[in-house]
Amino acid sequence: MNKSSVALLILLLFVIDQAIKIYVKTHFYYGEEYFVFGLDWFRLHFLENPGMAWGFKFGEGYLAKFVLILFRFVAVIWGTFYIKKMIREGYAKVFVICAAFIYAGALGNLIDGAFYGLIFEKSDPAVQNVAEIFPSGGGYAGFLNGNVVDMWFLPIIDTRLPEWLPFWGGNQFTFFDPVFNTADVWISTGVILLLIFQSQQKKDQKISENKKLKYTEGNRKIINND
């Protein structure tokens, strides 16, 4: 897989992620929800995340935000060189594709945190406004201090647990509860496929080594018999 095809894949994934985020940010008020295809378990639910996936943060304030953006920036820079290394050393196509998915997702969330505060009006849940892009009064935050736009909500199971259940009886239970974005999907897809194919590669390698060992042992027996 050459550099041009990898770059094109990354660009395509990045554009899809950003197009969805910009659409949601400029068409939904904060907390607005839309049932996709009328399905109760497949929803667009606009939220903003000041931290990483799952709401993880490096503390509070601008310094914590800066550390988070720096972490993402370093990850993207490292990813750039690592993908080049994979292409140069002839890694299997599937592994390069997995790395491209992870890279595109990291880049998408980096752009949110770095620039969205500058180019978007604040989405205020109190007034339920639909944010403008490039507002005349400026954005809602400074450089490197923006929030990541999240929108996918998949509450496949949303029920109240039976009263007789110890500890959790009577509580509301939702699976899958987090709201995430398309960049998170790219990252998760890349990591999951990477683990699957890496495991399969190790299995195939072990089978190949066992075959070679049996072949070698068989040749030794033939030589010894002669």
Query: What is the number of domains?
Result: 1
Specify the biggest β-sheet: 4 strands, antiparallel
State the low-pLDDT regions, or none: none
Q: What is the radius of gyration?
A: 24 Å
What string, H for helix and E for strand, traces the elements in order?
HEEHHEEEEH
Q: What form results from the Cα inertia axes?
A: globular
Order of strands in the sheet with the most strands? 1-2-3-6
Number of strands: 6
Strand fraction band?
5-15%
Q: Number of helical segments?
A: 4
Mean pLDDT: 86
N-to-C span: 49 Å
Helix content: 40-55%
Given helix and strand content, the structural type is alpha+beta
From the structure provided, what is the oligomeric state, counting identical versus distinct chains?
single chain
Topology:
Elements: H1 3-27, E1 33-35, E2 43-49, H2 61-88, H3 93-119, E3 148-153, E4 157-160, E5 172-175, E6 179-180, H4 182-225
Antiparallel strand pairs: 1-2, 2-3, 3-6, 4-5
Helix pairs in contact: 1-3, 2-3, 3-4
Task: Describe the structure in brief.
With 226 residues, the protein is an alpha+beta fold.
Describe the structure.
The protein has 226 residues and is of the alpha+beta class. It has one domain (3-225). The chain has four helices and six strands; from the N terminus they run αββααββββα. It has helices at 3-27, 61-88, 93-119, 182-225, and strands at 33-35, 43-49, 148-153, 157-160, 172-175, 179-180. α2 (61-88) runs antiparallel to α3 and α3 (93-119) runs antiparallel to α4. The protein starts with a helix and ends with a helix.
